[in-house]
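Q: Entry one of two.
A:
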Amino acid sequence: MKDAQGRQVTGRVRWRKFAVLAVPGFAATAALAVALAQGALAASFAVSGQQFKVSADKLEGEGFAQYGGIDTNQRDEVIPVAVTAIKNAKLYNLCQSVVTELGPLSISLKLSAGKDPDRPVTAKDLFVDATQISGDAEFDHIEIGRDASTLDKGPTTAQGMQDAFAQQADKVRITNLHQTAWATTAAKFRLVGLDLGLHKGKQECFK
């Protein structure tokens, strides 16, 4: 299935309303899940069976778009997500963590970057497929309730299905960002001061 611009839709459709995210759409999600199973929609890639956590002291973005979506895993299970897309983003004191359970043993992979306030993490055409987002958010010139197929402030490919709820803004600022996600993609992702390590036990960016 293609959107209004003729692009192949990548499985991002209506879901539900967060405090600053999408609106309720459980019936639409069910219908789109059927469409995905029948091959009418195609997810961009199969996500792993583990969600990961991301935190940052502050996120600053230009060209913001947000709409509902669905990801799939290798078992073709449908996973509702809230898609956040930003043309250009800066993240200050970024942390990313994922915990793998190996029987009685927990192994944590933890990454940090952008601790220097003068050298943040930067990303171009950033997409995050999340199930939870929290923080203090501020938007410039926000449009809430726009048709997802007509979004034009975010990255070029940041558009959803026709008639689906979406919102967009010229700029976004989120402090004390916490999010739980299934997938992140970016055209460019620059991690300044990267520090990545494996640890025994649970070491997450936030509880």
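Q: Entry two of two.
A:
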Amino acid sequence: MAGELDPTWKQHLSAEFDKPYMQQLKTFLKEEKEAGHIIYPRNADIFNAFNITPFDDVKVVILGQDPYHGPNQAHGLSFSVQKGVAVPPSLKNIYKELSTDIPGFVIPNTGDLTKWAQQGVLLLNATLTVRAATAGSHQKKGWEKFTDAAIKTLSDEKQGIVFILWGAYAQSKAALINPNNHHLIIKSTHPSPLAVSHGGFFGSKPFSKANDFLEKQGKKPIDWQI
């Protein structure tokens, strides 16, 4: 498993690493590697979402489900791919929505969303690893318990966070969000090509809604331009 977690996150989540599920997860990942399977993202990037966006800086959470399972795609941030890699279909649709939601937004050529993460957007996948070319292969192995703990801790310990939940799976995580801490939950269909064809994603304006909410709290809005 990856190296050190950002200290601000470690303060809140260190107890998770001692729980039986995490020990079982470590064993599973070790067995996967010993069996010769390639795991994405690379070890050093597994906790990138936490390490680029410290606990104290989180303003917005965009929840994904699984890392991308193709070569050189995943780097620990939901919906994001490494520089130089083709922009995936879901992210293309996110960019389309941004181009109508945020005045002046220009659709970029890169799918690297690190700039968002550096501004306080936690780009969190529910499952933090995947076997190459095998979508969903590391689901229900323990990662969800860890990321659920992260969501719950954020919602309990902080106030006024925007949670953007696209699709039924992400929306199921709304049950973890503390209703007493003045968070904003934005829901719509998933930006994947199949889901957007049913309507509900385009025109939902999650990015401007998030910024309006942050500004009302006196927080700096997110510059969504990549």
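A: Comment on entry two: The CA atoms of residues 2 and 43 lie 5 Å apart. The two ends are 30 Å apart (CA to CA).
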